[in-house]
Write a structure and sequence with these properties.
The chain is mainly beta. It has strands spanning about 5, 10, 20-25, 35-40, 45-50, 60, 70-75, 80-85, 90-100, 100-105, 105-110. Strand 9 (about 90-100) and strand 10 form a beta hairpin. It is globular, with a radius of gyration of 13 Å. It starts with a strand and ends with a strand.
Length: about 110
C-alpha cells in the first residue's frame, strides 16, 4: 500500500521558518522524483519545488526561490521542504507527490501574526 505522510505544518509568524517532512512507503522511493505542491483556498494547486530521484537536481517556483529548500534522504524514504522567511502568501495546504502519481494528504501551513 502506497503512503505519503506529510508532517511539520503549523502556524508561524511572518519571517519564521518551518520544515516539512514527507515519509514514503509502499513503492521504490529512490526511483521517483519528488515534489512539493501547495494549494491556497480558491487557488489552483501549484508546484513549489521538485527534486530528482537521486537528489542531484532541484528546481523551484519563482515565488519561493531563495527561501525554500527541498532535500531528500533515500535511506529514510523521506523528502523535506525547509521553508524560511515565510510570508502570509505562503499560507496553503502543502502536499508531497511522487512523479505526480502518488500524493499525500497534505499539511496546513499558516503564516500570520
Amino acid at each position: 500500500q502506497v503512503q505519503l505522510v506529510e508532517s511539520g505544518g503549523g502556524l508561524v509568524q511572518p519571517g519564521g521558518s518551518l520544515r516539512l517532512s514527507c515519509a514514503a512507503s509502499g513503492f521504490t522511493f529512490r526511483q521517483y522524483a519528488m515534489s512539493w505542491y501547495r494549494q491556497a483556498p480558491g487557488q489552483e494547486r501549484e508546484r513549489v519545488a521538485r527534486i530528482s530521484s537521486a537528489g542531484g537536481s532541484t528546481d523551484y517556483a519563482d515565488s519561493v526561490k531563495d527561501r525554500f529548500t527541498i532535500s531528500r534522504d533515500n535511506a529514510k524514504n523521506t523528502v523535506y521542504l525547509q521553508m524560511n522567511n515565510l510570508r502570509p502568501e505562503d499560507t496553503a495546504v502543502y502536499y508531497c507527490a511522487a512523479n505526480s502519481r502518488y500524493w499525500g494528504q497534505g499539511t496546513q501551513v499558516t503564516v500570520s501574526s
